[in-house]
Amino acid sequence: MLRISNHYVSKVAFSLLFVEVLILIGAFYAGSAIRFFDGDDFMLPKLDHFLISACVFAASVVFSMSALGMYQLNFNEGLRNPFFLKLMPSFAMGFGILTLVFYIAPELYFGRGILLLVFLIAAVGILAARTIFFTTSEFRFLESRIMFLGIGPLAKECGDLALRTASYHKYDVAGYVAMPAEECLVPSASVLQVEPGMSLVNLARKHNVSEIVVSVQNRRGGTFPIRELLECKLFGVKVTDAATFFERETCQIRVESLQPSWLVFGGGFDQSFVRTFMKRTFDIIVSTIILALTMPVMLITAALVRLEDGGPVFYSQERTGKGGRPFKVHKFRSMGTNAEKGGKPQWAALNDPRVTRVGDFIRKVRIDELPQLWNVFKGEMSFVGPRPERPYFVEQLIADIPYYNVRHSIKPGITGWAQVRYGYGASVEDAVQKLQYDLYYVKNNSLFLDLLVLIDTLKVVMFGSGR
């Protein structure tokens, strides 16, 4: 895995993206050369910004493919129907982006004749690249050989995670190393036999292991092999903590067995002036653009909400913000006017019967969240961050879930990592899952991660799968 601005990115997915960027730029040059072939040789058009136009084309298509989830690779799916169903819409979306770019910067325009050829060559190139990629992946040469220290519940969870077949970061599990006083919850056949006097580094060499994941629940006492793990690290075997392994593979931070020292001494949690300034700048720019683009949609929505039942257009509700400070969040009203007639706050749920017909649609495509742009401009929220919760539920969740209050160390957001990765939260159990994503974002938040959330949010809106 690669780390880009603290966020874990698969080397495989990153390599595929890099190759496809080269294919798209190459397709642009090839299409232009074919279009302007004069019978003797290939003559490229005399454009002052030809390379820039090629890069804009590549960026538009890659952005569109990302928004449709084409870099969230699934080895089981391979090149079956979903790939073809997403490729053409992504090209159509890329064409729309290019049209907007050419309207803003007409000097980058290179002609419709070229564009058709370029898209055709690009489609063939991407299809060929993905065919080669998924075919070679079946040979399993990208797998890492891994070993787990421990045989208890934590080791079993980590092992199951490593063996997920849909993951594009595959592992070949060499086995598990038994630790004293641990109940064996992994298959007995997977427990490695350690010969008398054999060190951990020799065991790793014997099984050709490149990484050891320390998945021992209790590390107290004199039986934990800290010196042997250090020896492994010195001899080139990577040693990874279970919390880091879980963070790397799921983009979550597991709260059940999390050690406070891991949060204290680990990296991340950047709250520097530079990061704060960049995030505020990002919030203002993105919110301004979205406000300008969606103003007609907001006006139509306001009219429809009012016409459906004659009730108020907007709905304001108290939420908990940064530092635990309360503020009023604003949304288009999506529920009936007597949604909480009993006076007691209720969890919002999927297919909630309190939701109106107009409300059901605007919730699915996130239109109901647009008035929160005003909260962003006021500085109460960011565009990306943990979703703000109601104080009534916050008190309950802080009491029930460890580290829940950590999510209040930054501003809440209109959209967030948990919202694009997890569905509606209607219980404490759902809140735990969403918190694990929120902790990952709080720890690793960056401009790069904000952009990824923005792209995933676009995918949620396009497919009507609002969170």
Automatic annotation (TrEMBL):
GO terms for molecular function: phosphotransferase activity, for other substituted phosphate groups. InterPro entries: Bact_transf, EPS_sugar_tfrase, Sugar_tfrase_EpsB_2. It is a multi-pass membrane protein. Its main location: membrane. Keywords: Membrane, Transferase, Transmembrane, Transmembrane helix. GO terms for cellular component: membrane. It comes from the Bacteria. The chain crosses the membrane at residues 12-30, 50-71, 83-104, 110-133, 284-305. Residues 279-462 form the Bacterial sugar transferase domain. It holds the Pfam family Bac_transf. Belongs to the bacterial sugar transferase family. This is Sugar transferase, PEP-CTERM system associated/exopolysaccharide biosynthesis polyprenyl glycosylphosphotransferase.
